Amino acid sequence: MLFVAFFGCSDGYQYSNNDLENHIPEVHINITNSLEFLSKNEYSIGSIQIEANHPSLTMNSKLIEVRGRGNSTWSFPKKPFQIKFEEATEVLGMPSARKWILLAHYADKSLLRTELAFELSRNSSLNWTSNAEFVELYLNAEYLGVYQLVEKIEAIPNRVNDGQGFLLEVNRPNRLGPDDIYFESNYHLYTIKEPEVDFGDPQFTLMEEYMKATEDALFGSNFQDSITGYNKFLDVESFVDWYIVHEITKNSESAWSSSCYLNYVPGGKLKMGPVWDFDPSLGNNYAAKSTEGFVIKDAGWYTQLFKDSLFVNQVKDRYKDFYAQKGSVFTMLEERAELLEDSQDRNFVKWPILGVWVWPNAITFTEYDDEVKYLKDWYSDRMDWLDHAIADL
User: Fold this and answer.
1) Cα gap 4→235, rounded to integer Å
2) pLDDT per residue over 9-26, tens digit each?
3) N or C: at which end does the chain have fewer Cβ atoms within 10 angstroms?
4) Which DSSP letter does residue 186 get?
5) How far apart are CA 338 and CA 138, in angstroms?
6) Stretch 202-231: mean pLDDT, rounded?
7) What pTM was estimated for this model as a whole?
8) What is d(CA 140, CA 142) in angstroms, rounded to the nearest whole number?
9) What range defines the domain where residue 144 resides?
10) Short-list 283, 278, 296, 251, CA closest to 393
11) Banded model confidence at residue 71, pLDDT cuts 50, 70, 90
C-alpha cells in the first residue's frame, strides 16, 4: 500500500475536466529510478495512471514494470518504452494484455506514419494489426511529449492468432540477443518469438522443418504447381496484402529484414504479418524520398513469388481495392492531425526539432502542418505511381 501511495500520482500537472476536454489521454508513469538510468535490458519498478476525457478510459494507479526498447530509436533523446502490468489489463479500451509499447516517433515529425500503415493493414486481409492510441506521456512528472500506446506484437490471447501457434521474425546475426531462439534456412535466419521453445525441442523442430519445406517448395523447379508448389505452404492472400502495404509505404526497413514478421498455426498455412516499424517509411528517408520505384518486389521471398504470373495477377487485382481506399485514408490523416493539433504543439516545444534534420529524414519543415501535408502528398503520389506500375507488371 505504501508503494502504491508513493507512485500513485504525479505532483506535476493537475487535472480538470476543462483541461482534458480537447486532450488526447495523458499517461503518467513513475519509476524508482530516473529516466537517465532506465535500462533497455532490465525492468524498473513503477506505476501508471491514465487520465482521459471519457471516464471509461481512465485508469487508477496500477503497478507496472518499465524498460526501454528499440534499436536505433533507443539512441534518440525521446525514447520508446515497454511497460508490463502484473496481470493482463485493458488499456484505453484496447483488449487486455500484460505488455504494451510506447512508441516515441521522434524521427517522424508528422507523428502519423505508423498510424497510416496500421490503417492500411486494418483494411487488409491480414489477420491482426496492433491497436494504438495517441497519448501524452509524463515520466516522473517530466513531460515527454506525444507517444503512441500500441499493442505489442505477441502470439498471446487477444493478439496474434489469439495465442495459438508461432510468431517468427526475419532476423540478422548482428541483431540476435543472448536469449533469442533461432534457426537458419538455406536463405534466411528466423527468430521464434512465440511460443517459448528451446533449441531442438519438438516445437522448435516442427517450425524449423516447416520453414525449410516451404522454402524448398518456393525455390524449387515446380514452385508454380498449385498442389506441390508454394501454394501448399503459404497463405497467399496474406503475402499479397503484406506486400502491398509495404510497397505503398516504401518501407525498406521491413524488406525481408528487421521488423518482418510471419505467423503460423500448425495445420494451417504460413501467413505474413503483423506489420511494424514505419517511422523511416513514406518519404521519411533518402531511400524512400522518391515516390517512384519498387522496394519490396525484389526482396526476400518476393523475388521468387513475382516470377509466378498468378501471384502477379493477384497483386494487380488486390491493389485496386487499396487504391479505392485512398480517400478514406486521407480523411483518417486529417482527423488524426486535428486530434493532435494541441498536443503536437507541446511535443515540439519539448523537442524543438521542426526544421532540424534528424536521422533518417529526407526533408524537414519548420511547421507541423507542412510535415503532415508532405506525408499526404507523398502518399497520394505514391498511390498514383503504383496504380500504373502494378498494372504494367
Assistant:
1) 48
2) 333 333 333 344 558 999
3) N
4) S
5) 22
6) 97
7) 0.93
8) 6
9) 2-151
10) 296
11) confident
Whether residues 287 and 383 fall in one domain: no
Which amino acid, one-letter code, is at 319? Y
- Which stretch of DSSP H or E encloses residue 183? strand 182-184
For cell 508454380, name the residue. 224
Both 222 and 361 in one domain: the answer is: no
Determine the pLDDT at residue 359.
Answer: 94
Q: Are residues 248 and 173 in the same domain?
A: yes
What are the distances in angstroms from CA 184 to CA 54, 114, 171, 173, 269? Answer: 49, 30, 10, 10, 20
Whole-angstrom Cα distance, residue 254 to residue 98? Answer: 26
Could you give the number of structural domains in the chain? 3
Tens of pLDDT, residue by residue over 159-179, are 999 999 999 999 988 888 889
Q: What is the pLDDT of residues 285-312, one digit of tens each?
A: 988 899 999 999 999 999 999 999 999 9
Residues 32 and 146 in one domain: yes
Residue 4 CB coordination number (10 Å): 12
* CB 69 within 8 Å of CB 53: no
Tell me what the pLDDT averaged over the chain comes to: 92
Residue 64, strand partner residues: 46, 85
Confidence of residue 369 (pLDDT cuts 50, 70, 90): very high
Q: Which of 94, 93, 96, 99 is nearest to 81 (CA)?
A: 99
Asked if 247 and 292 count as a contact pair (C-beta separation under 8 A), the reply is no
